[in-house]
Amino acid sequence: MKTRRLASLSLRVFLPLTLLSAAMITPVYANSFHTFPMAQRLHVGSAASPGADDVRGSRYYPMDSMAQNEQGKVGVKVFLDADGDAKDAVVEMSSGFPKLDAAAIRYVKENYDYDSAPGEKIPEFVRTVINFKLEPAP
Question: Domains in the chain: how many in total?
Fold first, then answer.
């Protein structure tokens, strides 16, 4: 009889408390299938290294490289003009895949913009790393 009352008490009291506490702790978006865009913030001297969403499936990640699962990091030296835009770029550290190296150069030339602090001189060149990484599909 005592165990029956205890079981009944646990179903009436402890189970709702457990569910309530889990609901209060779990963020609302935890089980969502949607991605929530974050405002991209540019920092002074920020590198042009793209995130996975920027290159995967975009025109910068070569289709042949994606099909062959080629991944790697490309070290790029970016030469800047007086406005901070990329005027030229060279590969300093290869990924081992010529297509990824060429894609990194193309990405930097089209997208890199050095934002200097007020009163700071634009450097002649900067170095950045472009990471080509394929993540498994969910």
Answer: 1
